[in-house]
Amino acid sequence: MFTGIVIERGSVKRARVRGGMLELEIEAPRIARDLKVGDSVSVNGVCLTATTTGRRRFSTQAMPETTSKTTIGDITKGDHVNLELPARLSDRLGGHLVQGHVDGVASVVRIEDDDDARRVWFSAAEDLLRYMADKGSVTLDGVSLTVVEVGRSTFQVALIPHTLEVTTLGVLTVGTHVNVEVDVVAKYVERLLKRDKKE
User: How many independent structural domains does the chain possess?
Assistant: First the structure.
């Protein structure tokens, strides 16, 4: 379980497909020193497992199922990625409950600067938008954000200067795709309501 508060922006030093799986080697000194082989780590919002660890770098693998349903398969050498370690029970919940289980992909359709901040609109499928609400939570590429507005086919978020500086969301352009994880609470509420209707 994560909270959507990015700890470090890592640099991809190697990305290759071997044995049908995507292998990533990521330089991230702050994260790497706290990782052990077998630990979970959020990479652009996708929960992956550390397969090797060192003082400055770690490696991880992604199955074809993951690369086909997220943006992980598009990562290449030189890219930067948002990284987060799992939350401890004693940690502050700075963002919201994030599982690292991506629900889908959204695409940037509009960007507007708002003084030092930035407003970004994303196009998303109905099966994602149905779980979003104005002032609700959403995770984009592993970053916990507040939804500003939900439309018929789009949703909007506002990015403060700190987020623009320390995450990959600062370099978004129109057409960029991002991993989306909707608020898990919304999914549980929907399931409970469906069950009540059946009864």
Answer: 2
Q: Do 193 and 119 share a structural domain?
A: yes
- Are 108 and 75 contained in the same domain? no
Q: What whole-number distance in Å separates Cα of residue 162 and Cα of residue 170? A: 9
Residues 66, 150: one domain?
Answer: no
Q: Is the dihedral of CA 128, 130, 131, 136 positive or negative?
A: positive
Q: What is the pLDDT along the chain (199 residues), one digit of tens a residue?
A: 899 999 999 999 999 999 999 999 999 999 999 999 999 999 999 999 999 999 999 999 999 999 999 999 999 999 999 999 999 888 888 889 899 999 999 999 999 998 999 999 999 999 999 999 999 999 999 999 999 999 999 999 999 999 999 999 999 999 999 999 999 988 888 888 877 666 5
The DSSP annotation for 35-98 comes to: --TT-EEEETTEEEEEEEE-SSEEEEEE-HHHHHHSSGGG--TT-EEEEEPPPPTTS---S--B
Task: Give 70's DSSP letter.
Answer: S
Quote the domain boundaries for residue 27. 8-84
The CATH number given to whatever domain includes residue 69 is 2.40.30.20
